[in-house]
Amino acid sequence: MEAIAEQSGMFPKLNVEEEPELSATEIESMCMSCQENGITRLLLTRIPFYKEVVIMSFSCDHCGYENNEIQPGGEIAPKGVIIRTEIVNSRDLNRRVVKSDFSSIRIEELDFEIPAQSQKGEVTTVEGIIDRVIRGLDQDQPVRRIQHPEAAEQIDTFITSLQTLKELECPFTLTITDISGNSFVENLNAPNKDPATTTSHFQRTKEQNHSLGIFTHDEVSEQPKNVVGESIALETVPEEIDSLLKPIREGAWPLEELQGEVLQFQTNCPECAAACDTNMKVTTIPHFKEVVIMATVCDNCGLRTNEVKPGGGIEEQGVKIEVTVRGRIDFARDVLKSEACSLHIRELECEVGAGALGGRFTTIEGLLTAMREQLVESTGMFMDSNDTETKERMDKFFDQLDAAIAGNKQLTIVMDDPTGNSYVQSLNDDGTPDTALRIIRYHRSYDQNEELGINDMKTENYGEEATDTAGSGDC
To answer: One biological-process term from Gene Ontology (predicted)?
Structure first.
């Protein structure tokens, strides 16, 4: 098992042909139905859009009881997610859904909500979610009809309403809110944009972080006031020894030398969780701005990643960059894509969201290759069970994308970045846009500023509001 772990990591991809040695771990455990011993099977794997997961299945040979659930095994996403899907036809009822323990589900038309942590995480469908609710409401109805007939009658009426949803006499809206950010609803139009689904992300509150077990360093290090000895012991630790990032002595590194230096810090590999090093360097892109490039190489599994962060803040205007890819010369253009930048390929009618590829510094060819790898990984989750129409559409799309990467098809790539921190290299020496490059700057909408957190920012006279509030309280 150690040799297998070194090659594929703790959470390998679910591919039996490539990993025939990997199998589920069986554990004997008590059945919650008959209190006899049954078998629990555990499988650690990696599912696209859901990261690392632990799939658990229990079966009892004595009473026939069966149960299965899914638990996240990877890190929690930086932001929570809200997914709203319009259910119009029978295909929408068959949408695959991945939900975590921390996701709440709401059906707007019935004013009905399943609270977070009331159900275990699972891989199911929209129809499966409704069926599970019906089973949960109906299981105690025989007893309830005797003890509380009025309440039982109301529940029967509501069950009828849920069953009517499955008949699709009128469309309804399914909303999934997941503070862990690890939920997903299948896109039936992949790789095109799903017009029936709206996905938005939000910053978690302090209480939501605590429910996920996330605490800041200050919250963890808070000490009771009466613990004097421990406080003194903590204060005796020098700051340069206790902190992760060591301070630079004054005058040791001039600014010019610091920009040319490659800094290194320890981290864990996102694939196999082994200890590895991340290199970080501040560099300046000609005719653009300063950026921070971070690269991680894992000696254990061979993973190589790179990420780019803008060195400055959010620009006053957003930017939309259109580049026509005509041949090999355009493939070699340098591209800086920020985390907030979305991509659209007009000829392929393909749209990639802002968070899909992350921030990276690459070329046009590297961007298309990364997009293809991302789509192959994401659509591979349900490819075996997709219908013929979906498979043919995906095969046709990948053929066209491969032809474009090979230089046999002209493309127009549109990069839309509301932060203004994306860049495409111009072929002109002075940095002005060439004939195949078009740059449009625009003012962000209120919703875009709200998503970036700009509407709540106050950079000038921010102390006056607190003073005014305290003064009004005294009165």
So the answer is: mRNA processing
Q: Residue 367: which residues within 8 A CB-CB, separation 6 or more? A: 335, 337, 343, 357, 360, 413
Q: Which tokens in the block code for residue 162?
A: 């849920």
- Cross-strand pairs, 439: 321
Sign of CA dihedral 180, 186, 189, 194: negative
Helix (H, G, I), strand (E, B) or coil at 83: strand
pLDDT recorded at residue 60: 92
Shared fold status for 25-72 and 318-452: no
> Residue 32's closest CA among 65, 75, 73?
65
- The domains of the chain are located at 25-72, 80-211, 261-310, 318-452
Strands (E), 239-317: 263-268, 275-284, 290-297, 304-310
Residue 366 has phi, psi (to 5 degrees) of -65, -35
Q: Can you tell me the distance from the alpha carbon of 176 to that of 305, in angstroms, rounded to the nearest whole number? A: 31
The model's pLDDT over 159-198, given as tens digits with 9 standing for 90+, comes to 898 888 888 888 899 999 998 887 888 888 777 778 888 8
DSSP states along 158-204 = HHHHHHHHHHTSS-EEEEEEETTS--EE--TTTTS--TTEEEEEEPP
CA quadruple 423, 428, 432, 433: dihedral sign? negative
Superfamily of domain 261-310: ZPR1, zinc finger domain (2.20.25.420)
**What dotted CATH number matches 25-72?**
2.20.25.420
**Tokens matching residue 249:** 């002595």
SS3 298: coil
**DSSP type of residue 327:** S
Cα radius of gyration (the chain):
27
Range from 31-45, 267-281, 399-413, 418-432 carrying the lowest mean pLDDT: 267-281
Strand pairing partners for 26? 41
Quick check: pTM over 0.70?
no
The answer to whether 314 and 420 are in contact (CB under 8 A) is yes
Q: How far apart are CA 152 and CA 156, in angstroms?
A: 6
Task: For the domain made up of 80-211, give the CATH fold.
Answer: Jelly Rolls (2.60.120)
What fold characterizes domain 318-452?
Jelly Rolls (2.60.120)
| Residue-wise burial string across 162-174, b where 16 or more C-beta atoms lie within 10 A, e elsewhere | beebeeeeeebeb
Which string of DSSP letters, residue by residue, matches 88-135?
Answer: -SHHHHT-EEEE-TTEEEEEGGGTEEE-TTSS--EEEEHHHHHHHHHH
